[in-house]
């Protein structure tokens, strides 16, 4: 298996090392020729034109680590050549565009996976395993806090949900195995935020999921307080107990006694590349396929709508129709 | 100064001891004669009829520790005799009734205070002092988590906001010195709650306050996880730092360094009775007077409305009109 890597920014370079290490790299595409220096004396073909790379390189899949606004264009070019795609989140910032590209991959049976790495963190994987084993009974609620100070240069206007919250919303679906049914949200730039035209640095949301499960979400990247990990801190309440994932540690609470879970063994592979390759070899849908991840992006989309209207918003979960289009 | 104590249930008996200790007790009223046994051999007059007690006892004020549904009737009877009243929260479960009794007290210039004790807890008082001293700059947001398992016998249907959340909403106003302007809320019985007709065991809310301050609130009395104190855990973010009140301890965070605040000195008196007596002697409004506390109850009232409609609800802060009625 060989891959064309598109994008050699900081995330792109980490993909570069990963693909190189595993002998999977066919070629690199990066519009900024100055980036080539990162490759040192490595012999991989380097292109500044995606079209040229696609024409001249034999590959099985493409890894898309471009900036979010470029995602769809690059994914579409890969699909034009019949290539499978492993793409960094988001599918696209534009929800309609996300639905269209996912529908196309499904229609043309092209493997398309989003490299959602949060649900592959070992302590997240372990918490899910405990839940599935019935450690807390049926899930009742999930309360998530995410606090960081993260003021960095970006090529686009920062938006806490599109940039980071989408990971947490994906974990909501992962832990529960359920889809959202309704959402209320408030997206805003807090008093202690920095000035940036259009920036959305904080989010509050409450989400209802199938089966009466509820989630409350508080997130900011303008926090002046103690920081949480990128994955946030989680309180997952059930009918028989609770799991708290705090600072990357897991606590299992039964009868109000908290026990730290030290044994993280018995969880499956935890990187997106391995999952993608396995899905290709086994001709199955990957865990965070475009079709699945679109349901996560639906949560982000309806959070935007709910915040704009100040109203509880029903969530229409996107489904593939018989005519190959996406509903909702 | 002498008081008539009305109500000798568990909260009432703790008031009994407090008033007795300070030589303030004139008489006790309790409809259930079996309760008299709590008084042992104490010589204080005991009545099962409020009217009879009010007719035969010389007193300066009445302490109302009846069940919430009785509050207004008892307060009104005291006002009929020109007595000042120190009343346990809530003013009344009925918002309209709360406005009317507060308006009456104001019109007739009768001192009327709600015994709101949460804002008199030393660590709460200290956090407020730090905020007022500018320790975190201007307040930006307040995030509150309250988790307990509290399944007890009550004389009325449990409602997390009316019963407990009202204290937290009062602290929001206390810490910020601002009033709520809008609220979204979801009040519900969670999957892991017990069955009780009409019970509301969990609440989510986000509240906007004057000056762009925001608050997010998560609360449940059906928690199977680790419990917070009754006052909840607080993260108060500001423009220059943050204060976290966790498990009754205060942490001051500046430049992302958390320092535990050990010195709770320099804060003023911390019990409601002392404040009430001082306000009577100084002929001033008490800190949590009925007129002030009505603004706290407004938050609870509009949370109910917001939850019922699924819409962001503007908060109309009740004000005394020239004709002696309350607005909003």
UniProtKB/TrEMBL annotation, chains A, B:
PANTHER family: CONSERVED EXPRESSED OXIDOREDUCTASE (EUROFUNG), OXIDOREDUCTASE. GO terms for molecular function: nucleotide binding. This is Gfo/Idh/MocA family oxidoreductase. Pfam families: GFO_IDH_MocA (PF01408), GFO_IDH_MocA_C3 (PF22725). InterPro entries: Gfo/Idh/MocA-like_OxRdtase_N (IPR000683), Gfo/Idh/MocA_oxidoreduct (IPR051317), GFO_IDH_MocA-like_dom (IPR055170), NAD(P)-bd_dom_sf (IPR036291). Residues 23-113 form the Gfo/Idh/MocA-like oxidoreductase N-terminal domain. Residues 124-244 form the GFO/IDH/MocA-like oxidoreductase domain.
């Amino acid at each position: 298996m060989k891959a064309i890597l598109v994008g050699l920014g900081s995330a792109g370079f980490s993909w570069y090392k990963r693909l190189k290490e595993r002998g999977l790299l066919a070629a690199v595409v990066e519009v900024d020729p100055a980036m080539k220096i990162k490759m040192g004396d490595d012999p991989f073909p380097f292109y500044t034109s995606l079209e040229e790379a696609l024409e001249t390189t034999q590959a099985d899949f493409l890894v898309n680590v471009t900036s979010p606004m470029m995602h769809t264009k690059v994914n579409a070019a890969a699909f034009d050549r019949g290539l499978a795609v492993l793409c960094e989140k988001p599918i696209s910032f534009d929800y309609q565009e996300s639905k269209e590209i996912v529908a196309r991959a499904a229609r043309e049976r092209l493997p398309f996976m989003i490299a959602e790495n949060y649900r592959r963190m070992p302590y997240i994987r372990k918490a899910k395993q405990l839940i599935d084993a019935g450690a807390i009974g049926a899930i009742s609620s999930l309360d998530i806090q995410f606090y960081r100070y993260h003021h960095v240069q970006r090529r686009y206007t920062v938006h806490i949900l599109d940039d980071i919250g989408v990971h947490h919303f994906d974990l909501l679906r992962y832990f529960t195995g359920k889809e959202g049914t309704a959402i209320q949200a408030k997206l805003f730039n807090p008093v202690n935020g920095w000035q940036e035209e259009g920036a959305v640095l904080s989010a509050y949301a409450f989400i209802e999921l199938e089966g009466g499960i509820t989630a409350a979400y508080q997130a900011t990247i303008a926090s002046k307080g103690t920081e949480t990990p990128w994955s946030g801190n989680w309180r997952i309440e059930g009918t028989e107990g609770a799991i708290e994932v705090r600072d990357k540690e897991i606590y299992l609470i039964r009868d109000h006694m908290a026990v730290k879970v030290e044994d993280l063994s018995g969880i499956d592979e935890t990187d997106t590349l391995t999952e993608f390759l396995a899905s290709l070899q086994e001709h199955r849908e990957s865990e965070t396929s475009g079709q699945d991840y679109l349901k996560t992006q639906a949560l982000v989309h309806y959070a935007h709508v709910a915040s704009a209207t100040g109203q509880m918003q029903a969530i229409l979960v996107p489904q593939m129709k018989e005519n190959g289009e996406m509903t909702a």
